[in-house]
């Protein structure tokens, strides 16, 4: 395409842009459709919260998290990874796991202390967006120490959304109003927001490798967890949050060990 006569600001040659494809293939459409479904689930969670149906609101965000875990794997299996899909996924995550949980918690509890509660909700939404922006900024970097060792940097956005709902899980399971205390919920939301943007190493799937001797037990445990989610979903979700929080220090210690091993290897390259 030749430059425009006036050399205007939208001249494609000035920006070095390439012409977009005329349509999406079915292979590229499927993972992006799953991402869009996750975004719709997150937004629907806000709608349920406005109507006071907080159980459905939480479930909608959880479904968004499940879909978010599927879309990337589907894209890799179908060899349909694209920059468009990565950007859409980040935008969807920012809304489904940042904006939606913040508004749900605010409508459920934090609005009782409007100023302090709103700042806590803002912290959760903004920190989720900052985490995703940091992830996008590093996506093309060759040197990523955490990722190369199988760890993540900070708490992932879907996990952060699930953790932020812990007081809500306990409130639904027990019916006790103590779990709805706005000051405590605000502090908890701020803590989760900090964990999402922190630089600490957290366990990723690559770092979680059970020994061969206990793999059958792990499969059985996974089945029991699914059964527990079907029978006692809120208590099970609470237990999953507690287990994850207990694993955070383990991830930090294990990565510190990896760093020491790398430092030792760098100091003695011959050995």
Automatic annotation (TrEMBL):
Regions crossing the membrane: 116-137, 149-171, 183-207, 214-231, 237-256
A Pfam family assignment: CDP-OH_P_tran_2
Swiss-Prot/TrEMBL GO biological process terms: phospholipid biosynthetic process
Positions of the CDP-alcohol phosphatidyltransferase C-terminal domain: 215-249
Subcellular location: Membrane
A molecular function GO annotation: phosphotransferase activity, for other substituted phosphate groups
GO cellular component terms, A-Z: membrane
Primary subcellular site in the record, as a coarse category: membrane
Keywords, comma-separated and alphabetical: Lipid biosynthesis, Lipid metabolism, Membrane, Phospholipid biosynthesis, Phospholipid metabolism, Transferase, Transmembrane, Transmembrane helix
InterPro entries: CDP-alcohol_PTase-I (IPR050324), CDP-OH_P_trans (IPR000462), CDP-OH_P_trans_C (IPR012616), CDP-OH_PTrfase_TM_dom (IPR043130), CDP_ALCOHOL_P_TRANSF_CS (IPR048254)
Superkingdom per UniProt: Bacteria
Membrane topology, from the record: Multi-pass membrane protein
PANTHER family: CDP-DIACYLGLYCEROL--GLYCEROL-3-PHOSPHATE 3-PHOSPHATIDYLTRANSFERASE-RELATED, CDP-DIACYLGLYCEROL--SERINE O-PHOSPHATIDYLTRANSFERASE
Family indicated by similarity: Belongs to the CDP-alcohol phosphatidyltransferase class-I family.
Protein's recorded name: Phosphatidylcholine/phosphatidylserine synthase
Organism: Novosphingobium olei
Organism classification: Bacteria, Pseudomonadati, Pseudomonadota, Alphaproteobacteria, Sphingomonadales
